[in-house]
Design brief:
Layout (H helix, E strand, L loop, with lengths): L1 E8 L2 E8 L4 H30 L5 H8 L5 H6 L2 H26 L6 H12 L10 H31 L15 H4 L1 H20 L20 H9 L2 H28 L8 H27 L5
Antiparallel strand pairs: 1-2
Bound molecules: protoporphyrin IX containing FE.
Length: 303
């Protein structure tokens, strides 16, 4: 007697001829072998198709295999997280500079000789181990590198954000979540940058007509930094610009300190009270210190 068993194997049909010999075991073994053959053939076909037809799943898949690996840090900087790290780490360096610069400038309240000696000390850092001013230039190089990286990371994060949301928010954004300081980071950053350009032309280079006093020596033969600051800040518009720029700097620093904890992953809600306190205190100390200088010059306390 002849019979047919239909083998259904994940959607594929196949008829297997078997002879009913009476022995059910033999029939079921044949069915089993037939199923295995079908599976084997299907696997062969699938493999052949895979080899022949399979193209790249996406553009990135091709690039991954073809692209040469970049050094780890460059690769990391290519990601949004990497850029945030760079912003946070360079931000810490810049915060350190701003703090020490303000503390150093407090020497102004001790008089002309003290401030000028302090400036002279900075020029002679590590002298005679290193040539005169060499350490100062190394520090300047580090500072410039940090500033450039900080600005570049900020700019490319903004570009990434825009790419992620090419269509503007249709409704009003939730400004309760984003504070005034966080919304104005870009603008306060640009104001600080413009201030810095003016400030360097004014007190470091004394370029052109910006500050003709720069380079004058005091009675001890030292560069008269004290006199240059007084000369600069006695001009009311310049003093007002210094005050406004330092308020912008304070706003920038407040949000900068607050968000660097976030960027570095230290954002446990338990610490939020401390984060706010650290950010507020730091920004306040810098603003009060720096704003006091133009006010002191205008008030005649310095100069
Ligand atoms: C009212 C506040 C400030 C005063 C009185 C002041 C004063 C000075 C003086 C006198 C110098 C020249 C030092 C020298 O030639 O030895 C200087 C340099 C400099 N200041 Fe300020 N500064 C103030 C705020 C700031 C702020 C807020 C920043 C940064 C955001 C800043 C960044 C710099 C930089 C980068 C230099 C050049 C340092 C160098 O390369 O020698 N200053 N400042």
């Amino acid at each position: 007697m002849r019979g047919f068993v239909t083998v259904v194997d994940s959607g594929a049909f196949s008829a297997v001829d078997f002879r009913a010999t009476g022995a059910r075991g033999v029939a079921s073994k044949r069915v089993h072998r037939a199923m295995n053959r079908i599976r084997f053939r299907k696997a062969q076909v699938t493999m052949a198709q895979t080899v022949m037809k399979r193209g790249p799943v996406s553009g990135t898949a091709i690039e991954r295999t073809a692209r040469k690996r970049k050094p780890f840090l460059i690769d990391l900087y290519g990601t949004a997280v990497g850029k945030k790290y760079v912003m946070a780490i360079t931000g810490i360096g810049l915060l350190g500079f701003v703090l020490f610069h303000m503390i150093g400038n407090l020497k102004m309240y001790m008089g002309q000789s003290d401030l000028n000696h302090y400036a002279h000390f900075l020029e002679k850092l590590l002298y005679p181990i290193l040539p005169e001013k060499a350490m100062l230039w190394i520090l300047r190089g580090g500072l410039l590198t940090m500033a450039v990286l900080h600005i570049h990371a900020a700019y490319s994060l903004t570009v990434l954000n825009k790419q992620a949301r090419p269509v503007k928010y249709q409704s009003e954004r939730d400004y309760q979540v984003a504070s005034f300081a966080s919304r104005t980071m870009r603008y306060t950053g640009i104001i600080v940058l413009l201030f810095l350009i003016w400030h360097l032309l004014d007190l470091t280079f004394g370029a052109g007509a910006v500050n003709e006093y720069v380079g004058t020596k005091d009675s001890e033969g030292l560069k008269d930094v004290y006199g240059a600051v007084a000369f600069s800040l006695e001009r009311v518009p310049v003093a007002v610009f210094y005050i406004l720029a330092n308020i912008a700097l304070g706003t920038h620093l407040f949000h900068g300190v607050w968000s660097l904890f976030q960027s570095l992953g230290w954002n446990n809600p338990r610490f939020n009270k401390w984060r706010r306190a650290v950010a507020t205190s730091f920004a306040t100390i810098i603003v009060v210190g720096n704003v006091s200088f133009p006010i002191a010059v205008l008030a005649g306390v310095v100069g």
